[in-house]
Structures are given as structure tokens and as C-alpha cells.
Amino acid sequence: MEFKSIKEIRENIDRIDRQIVGLLAERSASVKQAAKFKKTTDDVKAPQRVEQVIANIKALSEELGTNPVVVEQIYRAMISGFINQEMAEHAEMTPSITRSDPVSEYYTEEGCYITELSNSSGDPGLSIAQARVLPGVTTRWHRLIGTTERYAVISGKGLIEIGELPPRSLSSGDVALIPADCLQRISNPGTNDLIFLAICTPRFVPEAYKGPTPNQVRP
User: What is the pLDDT of residues 155-171, one digit of tens each?
Assistant: First the structure.
């Protein structure tokens, strides 16, 4: 095909890209269904199958006269992306039980104790942690970038501050909703430990945790 201008070339590339994305969508749907037939994460990763696909497309590249090195690089990146998608699909469809481990509790610079109950890259949509605040303690001001959090109180009494809201009391059964990027802290005015679940969507990652800038700290 002979082109008369860069505009024509770009229009043709755009046409090809539409076809490629359409085929990727079709491939993605097949990958999603394939997860149903795989019982373990090793079945999902399937390194032998990956190398078989790579060998096939390299042979096809040479047959069609395109650069097999470039095609291999593209395919390895694409396969890696689809494996990540399939791992997530597999995790969502695989029943599992995570046992609580009390000895895994650790102290944070925020001023409370944390026990991670569920926080996995295989379940990226949500994480659950149990937080424990000692009597008389107020946690430090902080916010979670791009992460919405809920405090579901199990026992004890709390006094929570969220954004511009005045302090609000919390007790067993109460749930506080903390929008993403919103300043927050909680105090324990009682005589017993304050225990609550911290439920984050998407799952909590350390990079999301930020302390306030000086002008963000409320008096």
C-alpha cells in the first residue's frame, strides 16, 4: 500500500489499532473464561504454555516478514498483563479462608496497633485490618490517597475527627466512612481498648498513607 501523506499513514495506523484493540478485547474475554478451568496459581502462570506461545508467534513473525524480536517483546508484555488479570479472576473465584494470627499485631507510628486480616494483591479491591487504640491515646492526623476507609467499631468507645466535621463519638456497632484523601484521626477517651475494623477500598498499600502538611493540621 502506497501512502501520499503522513496523515494517510496515521489514519491507517489508527484503523489497525482499532482492530488490535478489538482482538485484545476478544482475547481478554477468553482469558477470563480460562480462569474457571485453572485450580492453582501455577496453572494460571503456566510458564511452559507461555514459552509455547512465544515460539509460535516468533515463527509466525518470520513467516510474515516482521521483526520477531519486537513481536516477542510485545507479546511478553501482553501475556504478563493477561496473567495479572487472570490471577485476579482466579483469586475472586477461589474460595479461601484466612486465619487470624494475634501474634502478627504490630505497632504503627500512627499510634495504634494493627493486625492485618486480609490484604493481598490477589484481592486488590479491598483490605481489612483490626486496629486497637489504647485508652487515652489519640492517633496522628493522616489521610489515604485514593483509598476510601471505613471504621467499624467492635468494642470500646472512640472520638473520631474526619475532615471538617466536629469530633463525633463512636461505640460498638458504629461505622465511620472516611472518603479518600480526607484527613482523619481517632481518640480513645474510654478506660478499655478501642477495637475496630479498618476496611479499605481499594486495598491498603503503604504508599497511600500520608501525614498532613503543616497547614492541614487542625488546631
Answer: 999 999 999 999 999 99
